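Hey,
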Amino acid sequence: MVKEHEIARDAGLPTHRADCPELPFPVRAAVHLDEQLQIDPMPVLRALADEIRSHGGQIIEGVRVRRVSSDRNRQLVHTDNGTLSTESVVLATGTPVLDRGGYFARVHAMRSYAAAFEVDGEIPRQMYLGADEPSVSLRTVPRRDGPGDLLLVGGFGHEVGRARSEQQHVDEMLGWTDRWFPGARRVARWSAQDYESFDQLPYVGRLLPGTERLLVATGFAKWGLSNGVAAALALAGRLLGGHQEWAEPFRPWRNSELFSLPSAARANTQVGVQLFAGYTQLVRPSDPNPAEGHGVVGRHGLRPRGTCTVDGETTSVVPVCTHLLGALRWNDAEHTWDCPLHGSRFDRRGEVLEGPATRPLPTP
């Protein structure tokens, strides 16, 4: 924490060492940054959408992009509902839905959880982010059904598809909250997927060297409210012919990546390990009737089969990721099929929830 405080001060940030008397647990050290803003992102998104429409822009939802090709000076965006022709394309899709540039191997996908609680008595009024493991964040959110605030607890993340039990991570979050805020009553729960580069900086700019009309923004590493805004400014400037010097460290093809090659090599070695381990599970006979909330993978005859039971309905899919053929695993917290290779996720019927996959799972 001391080192982080020193680096922040050197960068010009108004940080200072602080105590945290309002927290119910002991804190060894803390760094406080002045003038931070706590917001509800949904009104911001609605305002941005209204501004886009006021300038004649269109927002189309529920249509999946399958691929992007080039025709002379035009970019062709191929979707389920037809093909669009445009001068420029920005891939701001969590992780890029195009494999060009190998971004699926340059970021790793993380899943984390959050819940809102009613708490009797006082709750912490500041925003907090823990530096230990498991990392925990705290903030408040206004109640919609009356005065006062709810306590929002988040964290307890893991790599997608690699947890022994996702529900265990959720239970740890609930147990942590009950320990430090006894009697807290959960009123809502969320989960999120984030992508981190190996040097912890986002990729913002050209998808490939020399491609000025096909741009990318990914790897925000859970800092979307700041990195997303920075990415928007950098990409808008590039599309309008400008250049922001401050955005240079975010270039997708930056020399600093050389220093993160050992981390990238270790991570992609783990991808190979996960690929092998997953396929060893597919050689076992599959259970045709798993218990409620459970999913199993195995084989039915010679074909792989993933079967789950949710809300009394038993469904089966081919549990092989349509991106790069990773063997999928059942997520017992969210009732989804998750890929441990690059983070693709599918609902219980095989529809795509998270990329880089763009095609649904086939049925057996």
